[in-house]
Amino acid sequence: MLSAKCYTLSSMPSEQEIYAALKRHFGHDDFRDGQYQPIAEVLNGRDAVVVMPTGSGKSLCYQLAAMLLPGTTLVISPLIALMKDQVAALERRHIPATFLNSSVSADEMSYRLDAMMRGEYKLVYIAPERFRNERFLQAIARTELALLTIDEAHCISQWGHDFRPDYLNIREALTGFPDIPVLAVTATATPDVRQDIIRQLKLGEEPREKPYVQVQGFSRENLDLSVVATRNHEMKYRHVCDLIRQHRTGIIYVATRKHAESVFGRLNLGRFGESKVLLYHGGMNDAERTRVYNDFVAAKYPVVVATNAFGMGVDRADIRFVAHWDIPGSIEAYYQEVGRAGRDGLPSFCRLLFSYADVKTQEFFIDGANPSWDVARNVLSYLRTKAVGKGVSVDTNALADRLDVNGIAIETVLNVFAQHKAITLTRGESFRDPPIVQYHPSVSEAELHAVFAARREKERRDRQRLREMIDFCDTSGCRHKFILSYFGEEAKADVCGGCDHCGPRQPPEPLTEAQWLIIQKVLSCIGRMKGCHPQSIVVDVLLGNLSAAVRQHQLNTLSTWNLLNGFKPEMLRILLETLVRSGCASLATDGTDLIRLTSKGMRVARREEPEFTIRWPSDKSTSRARAPIEPPALNLPSRIPGRSTGSDFGATLSAAARTRAFALRSWRKDTADELGVAAFRIMSNKTLFRVAEDNPRTLAHLSHLVSRQTLNEFGEDILDVLGDC
Q1: Quick one: DSSP state of residue 498?
Q2: Residue 714, number of CB atoms within 10 A of its CB
Q3: Measured between alpha carbons, how far is 19 from 25 in angstroms, rounded to an integer?
């Protein structure tokens, strides 16, 4: 079992010492909301699970704690690029830090491990798979550790949207660190995922006490969220071009490498050119991905077209838009990706270009990520005949064809087998290199069967997450409220003013005398409660509700009792939330919802800030409704209608080709209506029939059937229509 030495603090640093360290090491006078308490908890030796949105300053929590602790802080991070960026930023602040990952040469690795054991680094960043390296395990056992930080902690939960099996290595490693506090941080975790993080890390189990859990507000009021119904790729392309023209700097997320290359190619060859657009996906080699990442973060290029392999740890503040070409697989993935926009706090725009046809891509991914036991058993049989006692190269695509299954499913099966030590799995430098697999008979078939049976719950959750993502696209209500509710937070208002349903935000008007008096009464009541009661009790006191808590604490004797009798309760709750957002009051971050008056709130209550104003709550409790997007229907008649009589359209074609011709004609009409042109301008009947008969499956084939202009503008859409027939 791995064991490690650890440092402990002889005494907890005072608040003044923590603030002084913040100024000395990072140059800040004050903490952002939610940063101070996690630091204080881990300095006090307590484990913590912290959920804070992208761009809210999670990294500072463990970096400052590391500077106040006397030993070395180990930071587990999933991305090499993120490690390099954070270490470089720390070194610029003269904070000793390093990283240990596959990009480090053997000689340099030896040097860094020796320096780590000598205590020369305050922070050491590692990838989770480093816990499988015996040399690292020996070095860490001889290192004085003070704190273990797990970044992107949702990766340890198989209920999370980005589960990574290597994160499970952390759980085993923790048995050797019984006295070292653990800080798990993430930007996206539902209540279920938060509980699973705690369970996977065994936080709260002996000898560890119950962890401190903090969920800092998911609300990103500077993000304008919208969903745009799109029938075809041409409509998506026009929306993307509009976003680039209007907002210049952004990320265009696509679901597949094929789509990434197609969208990039069209933008690159079109009006924007090579000087503006980058391409990033998991099929590129490490050097290419690193170059693209660095060029985008350094602001050399304003736009990147990318799969979800891009984004974690991207630290660029001026991203003005995020477009989703395809629907993401979950609300978690969507909100993490749009959260990369507007990190400077300025208005930013997030557009999801939605088509029901795109849902099939995510269903394909879910099928691949959750193979059945029948698929796994067939792969097992293959490995028993080919890979016993020796490592063999496995062509996963060929094996998928042989077994007639989703290619992603083969990769998933191999990963699960490796995770449970049924095989040794070695991957090459490039994703194109087939993995080397050696089968180990020591793991029984019954054990593996149980593993895949247990994964059915994961599949159910994956499909439910996709269903909730579709519900987000279909909702007629406030999109911000939908997301906050999903993550277990209560929306501050029913109308956010920052989505396509609620309309644009309007600047708040000056307060009337009557509104000033109400605010003074509310702030006075909060002040008299001295931070000892939650918002709900403030509402009870102001409205004169003699609740059990009011009676227990004799709050009906306060001078603010019943001051707002008759005021609408829901409006008062929204007003309280608004005053919190404006900085007049603050909420405890430990889940108790205790509210206290701030120094700004005291000044406002005394009217010492005459320019103060807020957006006053409205009587409206629902947002502007909009009809949900209806899925497209393809109703094929028994007889293909003709141009005039309804009998001769495509009459000379075969039955299958006539079906394709009808589908192409339907697409042509929709596209023509969208562009405001005659249908023949999109494609003539003669060309349409030729395409329907030949049934091309690639752009190269299609190029022989249509004009170059048609190929460039509508090629992908035509192939999509044919693929659905």
Answers
A1: S
A2: 23
A3: 10
